[in-house]
């Protein structure tokens, strides 16, 4: 059955929050009044296994957190899940980029634990930053997350804009020409292919993880610095165009790579500012997200407030 009882925006209490990303599935018990976490858990996504396996791990994590909440004497009223895919206003996943949940009864399965709300991970993270992080106090900002993939969303008066279909987060998937930093060969690809963590590692050409490239660049490794400039340039152009088009107070940059201190953020900031229209001064603030890797699960829990939920009503 559906539990569509509204919950007041000022209500205090707890919800479970789970963030299903391309690299990890993370969850915790979330204090909806403060954003504080209790009993955080994390497992690898291993998305190559397929959607059913990822759903099984997400369900197991939800059960584990619900049991832990009971043991601690907490009473979460809902389960919020953010997923790294497109999610429509009814909470249905309708893309299959990495988390293959289309065609699966995701809400039905998770709703057996607690009344459930499913949202896109970037909107969940943006909501958390609006309430508890770098977006607090701003009337509007553009939030972008950079990690395994790249997504963004406009936030107006604390509410992430979903668009007519729930697809207003695809900012780095249009085709663009890329110049190989090593040989100069020109190929067609997506901005995400260059600007994401995997794209950065590929441009560096020495293996490892994105954080290894950032660390090498911080140590003045010329190849790493060149790879970072190669990654930041196309995304900077996209974000500059969005800033000129939407005129937000700020751009808030999150995600594992976007939140990393040092060369990547510096290069991306430089690329954004160099692409802005110079017809009039633009006081645009460019800042990093404040909540780090927990933004998605905090926002997923917050998204359950005053939203229709699928699943069994909570015990209280």
Entry summary:
By secondary structure, this protein is α/β, with parallel strands linked by helices. The protein has helices spanning 51-71, 106-110, 121-132, 191-195, 197-204, 210-218, 222-246, 255-258, 263-275, 295-302, and strands at 2-3, 14-20, 24-31, 37-44, 79-83, 116-120, 140-146, 150-156, 159-160, 175-179, 186-190, 250-254, 285-288, 309-310. α5 (197-204) packs antiparallel against α7 (222-246), α6 (210-218) packs across α7 and α7 packs across α9.
CATH superfamily of the largest domain: ATPase, nucleotide binding domain
Overall geometry:
globular
**Could you name the CATH class of the largest domain?**
Alpha Beta
Instruction: Give the ordered list of helices and strands.
Output: EEEEHEHEHEEEEEHHHHEHHEHE
Low-pLDDT runs of 5+ residues are 1-11
How would you classify the quaternary structure? single chain
Radius of gyration based on Cα positions: 19 Å
Structural class: alpha/beta
The count of β-strands is 14
Compute the number of helices.
Answer: 10
Keywords:
five-stranded mixed beta sheet; globular; alpha/beta; single chain; 2 domains; Nucleotidyltransferase, domain 5; disordered N terminus; 316 residues; 23% strand
């Amino acid at each position: 059955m559906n539990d569509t009882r509204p919950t007041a925006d000022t209500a205090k209490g707890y919800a479970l929050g789970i963030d299903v990303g391309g690299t990890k599935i993370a969850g915790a018990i979330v204090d909806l009044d403060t954003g504080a976490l209790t009993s955080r858990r994390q497992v690898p996504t291993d998305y190559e296994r397929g959607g059913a396996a990822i759903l099984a791990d997400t369900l197991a994590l939800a059960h584990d957190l619900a049991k832990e909440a009971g043991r601690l004497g907490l009473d979460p009223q809902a389960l919020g899940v953010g997923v790294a895919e497109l999610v429509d206003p009814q909470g249905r996943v309708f893309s299959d980029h990495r988390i293959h949940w289309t065609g699966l009864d995701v809400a039905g399965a998770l709703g057996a634990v607690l009344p459930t709300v499913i949202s896109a991970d970037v909107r969940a993270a943006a909501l958390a930053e609006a309430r508890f992080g770098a977006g607090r106090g701003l009337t509007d900002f553009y939030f972008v997350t950079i990690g395994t993939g790249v997504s963004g969303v406009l936030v107006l008066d604390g509410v992430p804009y979903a668009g007519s279909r729930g697809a207003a987060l695809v900012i780095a998937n249009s085709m663009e020409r890329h110049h190989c930093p090593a040989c100069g060969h020109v190929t067609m690809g997506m901005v995400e292919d260059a600007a994401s963590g995997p794209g950065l590692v590929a441009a560096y050409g020495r293996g490892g993880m994105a954080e290894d490239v950032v660390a090498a660049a911080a140590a003045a490794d010329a190849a790493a610095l060149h790879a970072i400039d190669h990654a930041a340039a196309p995304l900077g152009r996209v974000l500059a165009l969005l800033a000129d088009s939407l005129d937000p107070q700020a751009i808030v940059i999150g995600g594992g790579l976007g939140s990393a201190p040092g060369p990547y953020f510096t290069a991306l900031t430089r690329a954004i500012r160099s692409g802005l229209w110079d017809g009039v001064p633009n006081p645009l603030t460019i800042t990093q997200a404040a909540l780090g890797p927990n933004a998605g699960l905090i926002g997923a829990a917050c998204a359950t407030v005053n939203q229709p939920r699928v699943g069994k009503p909570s015990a209280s």
